[in-house]
Amino acid sequence: MTDRRLAIDAWESLFRAQHEVLNEISGDFVVGELTQAEYDVLLTVTRAPGMSARLRDVTANMLISQPSVSRLVDRMVASGLLTKCSDPDDGRGAIVSATDQGASLFRKVAATHGRSIAERMSTLSDSELEQLRTLTAKLRGPRASDC
């Protein structure tokens, strides 16, 4: 069995590191461009084939509840960042697609955000980054390898 105190200390260190890094890079999301949540939606959608994804796949990637994701997507459709239509394979579902405007804005913010992440993570070597990725995937469980 794992040493309980060590497990708690490691968890607290991971949690605090995540909190500090997120606070530091949250400045990448300038008011009036994209919020972090909108960026996360566009990240999932723009990485999908044809820059389109099922709404349920977008929801599965988000750290907020399904109703919140649905409302966020509806706001993004209204602001011209996404389109939304019925899933032809499942009439109960929806497909969301990045518009040219949404993809362009995502790329702009992603360039800045990517630089901030790379700079912040540069305190670790490539070997340490690979180890961190492996360890966090292991903590996330079997689903993490699907990402």
Automatic annotation (TrEMBL):
One of its GO terms (molecular function) is DNA-binding transcription factor activity. SMART domains: HTH_MARR (SM00347). Residues 1-141 form the HTH marR-type domain. One of its GO terms (biological process) is response to stress. It comes from the Bacteria. Signal peptide: none annotated. InterPro entries: HTH_MarR-typ (IPR000835), MarR/SlyA-like (IPR039422), Tscrpt_reg_MarR-type_CS (IPR023187), WH-like_DNA-bd_sf (IPR036388), WH_DNA-bd_sf (IPR036390). Keywords: DNA-binding, Transcription, Transcription regulation. This is MarR family transcriptional regulator. It comes from Microbacterium schleiferi.
